[in-house]
Amino acid sequence: MELVESSPATEHHPEMNREEASGESSSSNQLENWTEEQDQLKKKLIAHDDFPWKLPSSPTELPQGSETLKYVGGVDISFSKDDSSVACACLVVLELPSLRVVHNELSLLRLQVPYVPGFLAFREAPVLLQILEKMRDDQHPFYPQVLMVDGNGILHPRGFGLACHLGVLAHLPTIGVGKNLHHVDGLDHSEVRRSFLLKENEDEQVIKLVGNSGFTWGVGFRPTLSSVKPIYVSLGHRISLDSAVEVVKMTCKYRVPEPIRQADMRSRAYLQKHLLGLLKDLGHTEWKTEH
DNA sequence: GCGACAG
DNA sequence: ATCTTGTCGC
């Protein structure tokens, strides 16, 4: 019901009322459909290393035939403060080990699907997938070997967050990076912070996120031992948790890994620039907050 | 039943 | 997600 009421795109559709009168709200139908789709896609999830390259930090040698990880992608979407349906999606590709941005793709668009906790992928995955597919179809030389996603992987109520969703659809190795903890299986962010403060963990950069069930959902990660607020890393697709953490370590200059941080900054900047352009086009010669 | 809930 | 100023510290 909240979904219908808060959705400008559907609030004037009379057919919605019939569904609700029959006791079957369209929004609960939608959530059922989405849940079913997640369960179906989850069957294709690959939770181990499944790629031709190797990590630069790999202890094994560098023999013939196996290339080293060089191009790491990052995706994020920023939203307008005035109209939350106006968004800018960004894909960046960074070169290792320099962390130099070698590619940058932006897309300004309007998102109709609302954000529902546990169903972020249905809002954000379509655009990101489109950008990825275009780059792949163009045989772009910087097409990423692994993609870092601003959102969780299997650290999710049904074990299939945005990073998994996007990974499966794009058939690309992905890593989920959350800036906040999605509370699942008894996991709690204050517990994670307490763990980092324990004497026994004072030298640990990584804390396993083991839920009440005993399952390891991912890790809490702090870029420095003095960092207060960790990020939450979980496997998305075609990569193990250990390898995912290695990639995060290689790309972390600040709290948020560079690929995601760059995508975040660039999408936000592009959005700002375009919104100013729109205001000018509409003839608003004065757009200060005070008159 | 009530609250909590990635971006 | 977004709003929002300065401030403390390496």
Automatic annotation (TrEMBL):
UniProt keyword terms in alphabetical order: Cytoplasm, Endonuclease, Hydrolase, Nuclease
Coiled coil: none
Species the sequence originates in: Brassica oleracea var. oleracea
CDD domains named among the record's database cross-references: Endonuclease_V
BP GO annotations: DNA repair
Region described as Disordered: 1-39
Compositionally skewed regions (Polar residues) per UniProt: 23-33
GO molecular function: RNA endonuclease activity producing 5'-phosphomonoesters, hydrolytic mechanism; single-stranded RNA binding
Annotated Basic and acidic residues bias: 10-21
Example of a GO cellular component annotation carried by this entry: nucleolus
Listed PANTHER family: ENDONUCLEASE V
Protein name: Endonuclease V family protein
